[in-house]
Design a protein that fits this description.
The protein contains eleven helices and four strands, in the order αβααβαααβααβααα. The chain is mainly α and 198 residues long. The strands form two sheets. It has a two-stranded parallel sheet with strand order 1-2. It folds into three domains: 66 residues, Rossmann fold (3-Layer(aba) Sandwich); 70 residues, Orthogonal Bundle (Helicase, Ruva Protein, domain 3); 32 residues. It is flat. Pfam families: AAA (PF00004), AAA_assoc_2 (PF16193), MgsA_C (PF12002). One of its GO terms (molecular function) is ATP hydrolysis activity. Keywords: ATP-binding, Nucleotide-binding. This is Recombination factor protein RarA.
């Protein structure tokens, strides 16, 4: 698909002098050599490259590509924004409005904790919960507990996320990147890591 997009972009540039925007979601999944393939087209202006990632781009993106990019950090949604998102999803017909579902305050708090500020995750969780609910019913804490189990935001000391995060913290410190180091430190503390370990 990427090769096709590049070919179309070359044609657009050649015939019409127009640049093509190429959006790559989860760009961190591309290995470094795959990321290298974008460079000539970014450099010559054929492509306007936009990559989205949930990872720290300093660690996951090729340095050459990163040096030609602007990094925008999208902040997590706050409670008010998540509540507005959920209310719209529950009331609008193009969402779940026709099902006449409601969400208890405790249920909202539980969804909010599980979503961790991610609107897309919040909507996915709400949709999954609605699949378990009957029309006209309330999505309550019991239903959400059956859906989420113990998957709510928690630090998995000794698990894969722990080692990924501690590695990112160490790389940030070794790389003299105070902003990244502070980010990973705060993220681990927020997740419940023992400060003495850090």
């Amino acid at each position: 698909e990427i090769r096709q997009a590049v070919e179309v972009a070359k044609q657009q540039a050649g015939q019409y002098g127009k640049r093509t925007i190429l959006f790559v979601d989860e760009v961190h999944r591309f290995n470094k050599s795959q990321q290298d393939a974008f460079l000539p087209y970014v450099e010559d202006g054929t492509l306007i490259f936009i990559g989205a990632t949930t990872e720290n781009p300093s660690f996951e993106l090729n340095n050459a590509l990163l040096s030609r990019a602007r990094v925008y950090v999208l902040k997590s949604l706050d409670e008010a924004a998540l509540r507005k998102l959920v209310n719209r999803a529950l009331t609008e017909d193009r969402g779940l409005g026709q099902r006449k579902l409601t969400l208890s305050d405790e249920g909202f708090a539980m969804l909010m904790a599980a979503a961790d500020g991610d609107g897309r995750r919040m909507l996915n969780l709400l949709e999954n919960a609605s699949d378990l609910a009957e029309d006209g019913s309330e999505i309550d804490i019991e239903l959400l507990q059956s859906l989420l189990g113990d998957s709510r935001r928690r630090f998995d000391k000794g698990g894969e996320a722990f080692y990924d995060q501690i590695s990112a913290l160490h790389k940030s410190i070794r790389g003299s990147n105070p902003d990244a180091a502070l980010y990973w430190f705060a993220r681990m503390i927020d997740g419940g890591c023992d400060p003495l370990y850090l």
